[in-house]
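Thread: nicotinamide-adenine-dinucleotide complex, take 2
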Amino acid sequence: MIGIGLVGFGYWGPNLARNFQSLPQYQLAAICEMNPERAALASQNYPTAAVTTDYAAMLDMDGIDAIVIATPVSTHFELTRAALLAGKDVLVEKPFTRTSAEARELIDLAETRGRIIAVDHTFLYTGAVQTIKRLVEAGELGKIVYIDSVRINLGLFQSDVNVIYDLAPHDLSITQHLLERDPVAVQAVGASHAGNDIENIAYLHLEYEDNLIAHFHVNWLSPVKVRHFLIGGTSKMIVYDDMQPSEKVKVYDKGIVIKEGDVESLYRVYVDYRTGDMVAPKLPFGEALRVEAEHFAECVETRCRPISDGHMGLSVVRVLEAAQRSIKHHGDRVELSSI
Ligand SMILES: NC(=O)c1ccc[n+]([C@@H]2O[C@H](COP(=O)([O-])OP(=O)(O)OC[C@H]3O[C@@H](n4cnc5c(N)ncnc54)[C@H](O)[C@@H]3O)[C@@H](O)[C@H]2O)c1
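Output below.
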């Protein structure tokens, strides 16, 4: 059994605690929470776990092999670093860190010490994204030419990060997982309406080689919740609507056929439309966090690399950092090679 120490029992921590507690591979040995009311709740819900407000004390406890970090982003670097130095494997919430320099330092430390870092990019473990990944790998979509996502709702205004750091890691990790490559440049614009300098609405534009573009709209100030992810391929296109209770993924056999013009209309290009069937594939069932926790156990036991490892976390953070830089310069194009 893998002994788990969870730090952070706020909004997301309880979901992690529930999943780790329910799996036979783990023992939820300790919970560290600095807020006394939340710590009392953790004690009440998990009476067999040692609950403490002292993180260093938890790292020193016997029987803890891995640390799960569910605290605000600004704390991820220090808490992950301390866990790695104490010889623990780590599952840290998204986004991995605030800066790419921090992410690189943690990756180096984990590699030197032979420790595993996994970043909780939860969506990668959903049946929907697993199915889309399978379709992309099988070449069903042809060449992917664009990705377009809307992730908006009346969200919790965070005090330490903007909406890009809060919501875009989902879109960026899905995109990175599907494309397996980084963009070359990023542009972002956004605005703050809460009387501080923290953007609550933003638009990200990612530019890849081969004329592939990706566009993400993230917003905490929308009256409706939308989770709409569109992938355009030269053969087929996918609409992933996470708000649908079933048939979240729809594969459209639609597209264009480009024909060269005849002599009279020299240089003119004709576009014909191709409209075939729509298929909604059956998706694997299961809570993403549970699937992820099972995968993490396998990585800890066999010392293999997690799907969402530190390098995936770094790829996401590099784009966040580029977007942050762009947003502060009114949408300037930021080359990813500079990050
Ligand atoms: N994967 C997902 O889908 C998902 C969803 C929501 C949040 N998150 C991520 O989870 C993390 C936490 O978000 P949240 O919404 O739960 O935040 P939160 O503020 O609700 O909870 C964080 C908790 O950590 C505690 N804490 C902070 N520093 C601590 C320390 N040094 N020692 C002990 N306790 C400490 C706080 O008291 C608080 O209770 C963030 O990184 C966020 O991005 C991920």
